[in-house]
Amino acid sequence: MRPFDYVRAETTSDALRADGRIIAGGTNLLDLMKLEVETPERLIDVTRLDLREIEAQENSLRIGALVPNSDLAADERVRRDYPVLSRALLAGASGQLRNKATTGGNLMQRTRCPYFYDTAQPCNKREPGTGCQAREGFNRILAILGTSDKCIATHPSDMAVAMRVLDARIEIESPSGETRLLTLDEFYLLPGDTPERETVLEPGELITAVHLPEPPKGRQAYRKVRDRASYAFALVSVGAAVNVEGGKITDAALAFGGLGPRPWRDAGVEEVLIGETPSAAVFDKAADVLLRDARGFGANDFKIPLTRRVLKAVLSELTGVAQ
Amino acid sequence: MKITLSVNGEGRSLDVDPRTSLLDALRDHLDLTGSKKGCDHGQCGACTALVNGRRINSCLTLAVMHEGDEITTIEGLGEPGALSPLQKAFVRHDGYQCGYCTPGQIVSAKGMIAEFSNGWPSHVSEDLEAVPDFSEAEIKERMSGNLCRCSAYPGICAAIRDAAPDEGLGEREAAE
Ligand SMILES: Cc1cc2nc3c(=O)[nH]c(=O)nc-3n(C[C@H](O)[C@H](O)[C@H](O)COP(=O)(O)OP(=O)(O)OC[C@H]3O[C@@H](n4cnc5c(N)ncnc54)[C@H](O)[C@@H]3O)c2cc1C
Ligand code: SF4
Ligand code: FES
Ligand code: FES
């Protein structure tokens, strides 16, 4: 690990004034610093800031950026009103990691692409312009949607997939004192020609909270497929909230993990479902739309049929109609 | 950097490079070598310690971030001649072979029992809002952050089930 200066912020304005890299739970940043994939010169420890509350506001919930993943998953309001979020969190990492991982850090965690982790290999995300070894290499865990010639990495978070289903907004404070609220689609960038830029967060800005709006109507589910039954990242995951009334789907929100460079949501998929009587044929049509531009790179080709199956299984579970 | 850590109820002063992980501080500076380094990347659980009663991977946190926290290691749970119920149960049920993962398993189990007692659900809990049974499936899922290269899992599971009632299973912690 490269040497760095360590600064402990006592207040949010301390943190915004200090020039350096934020460390919260440290479970992703330190992992990458040990490998010298990340080499910050100064760390700003934000763990003492007062951002640990989950506050109920009018029909909504404001989750402080430092709320640990385990507390968020266990919160009684989240378990009751936003079960997709509890389920997604509980499907991620391990008990020890969830105790340390924070809401803000989880959103900002970086890809698990093996070449990104290996400083002996070229990687456009780690070292712009060096190339992408994954396209023709070990890409089993990598993306089939939203990729570019430069990078095919996935965003590995489970939590973010559920937040995308729930139309969460990320609260960001900037050094000038401004606060803005962004949806996850506004927050995460697609790789394009600059895979090193993953979010719109500017240097010096701090995620202070995540806002969950009113719970969606209907039932919610999170299903994750991985290489072992626990303590593994998603190959494919589906988060969903679906409402059926009078035999028709009236509301649907779906987001996908393991498929793209950000938690993937496609309004076209929901349009296919809303207003329809749930049936295997309708579920297949939704999968057709989701996967119309999907592209595998060899070792991850299996994700295309797997996604179809997981999507259909989740829709079947939530609507009570056989796949 | 000069820091003071509270470890197993005792204040300990040490002078560390900011890069020092909590695990290295415990092992190399405080001579508490019970906590083990398996992977140093959060992937095995051998380094599990309790910070303010909660289990974490001590390899993925910096010592300098833990001033003011109460840290508990395997040495703080019990010692030869005065073993904790979990430690005794691991001996009784043969919950190990080489023993390398064992301190992490025991400290993790201690933290896990407290989480369970506070009503936290897990990935395998059928109902997110009900109190789950302390079943084998629940124990396995909740302990998945601790790998055992010798695959002593049956003994580990049996030891945890056996000792849990004496380790406060079902006693809800007062809210912080
Ligand atoms: C073995 C292992 C298995 C895992 N399995 C899973 C899994 O199955 N599913 C899953 O979703 N995750 C998994 N994870 C990843 C884990 O969820 C993340 O490491 C964790 O959520 C990161 O949160 P943190 O608080 O520790 O972040 P840190 O490591 O502290 O920070 C990560 C990044 O976020 C930035 N940051 C942190 N807080 C803020 C803030 N408030 N504002 C702006 N920037 C900020 C930091 O500067 C840094 O760049 C796993 C991790 C490990 C090590
Ligand atoms: S997929 Fe992205 S992160 Fe992986 S090697 Fe290619 S450029 Fe790097
Ligand atoms: S040494 Fe910390 S998890 Fe392996
Ligand atoms: S007893 Fe050998 S690793 Fe678990």
Structure description:
- The complex is a heterodimer of chains A (323) and B (176).
- With 323 residues, chain A is α+β, with helices and mostly antiparallel strands.
- Helix content of chain A is 29%, strand content 20%.
- Chain B has 2 domains: 76 residues, Beta-grasp domain (Ubiquitin-like (UB roll)), CATH 3.10.20.30; 83 residues, [2Fe-2S]-binding domain (DNA polymerase, domain 1, Orthogonal Bundle).
- Chain B contains 6 helices and 5 strands; from the N terminus they run E-E-H-E-E-E-H-H-H-H-H.
- A 5-stranded mixed sheet of chain B has the order 2-1-5-3-4, sandwiched between helices.
- Chain B starts with a strand and ends in a 13-residue tail after the last helix.
- The mean pLDDT of chain B is 96.
- At the A-B interface, strand 1, helix 2, helix 3, helix 4 and helix 5 of A face strand 4, helix 4 and helix 5 of B.
- One FE2/S2 (inorganic) cluster (FES) binds next to loops of chain B.
In brief:
The complex is a heterodimer of chains A (323) and B (176). In chain A, 29% of the residues lie in helices and 20% in strands.
**Structural category of chain B:** alpha+beta
Please count the helical segments of chain A. 13
Ends distance of chain B: 30 Å
CATH topology label of the largest domain in chain B: DNA polymerase, domain 1
Assembly level: heterodimer
By DSSP (H or I, 4+ residues per run), the number of helices of chain B equals 6
- Give start-end ranges of low-pLDDT stretches of chain B: none
Strands in their spatial order, largest beta sheet of chain A: 4-5-8-6-7
Major beta sheet summary of chain A: 5 strands, antiparallel
Number of strands of chain A: 11
Strand content of chain B is 5-15%
Gyration radius of chain A, rounded: 20 Å
Mean pLDDT of chain B: 96
Mean pLDDT of chain A: 97
SSE class of chain A: alpha+beta
The unreliable regions of chain A are: none
Quickly give the CATH architecture of the largest domain in chain B.
Orthogonal Bundle
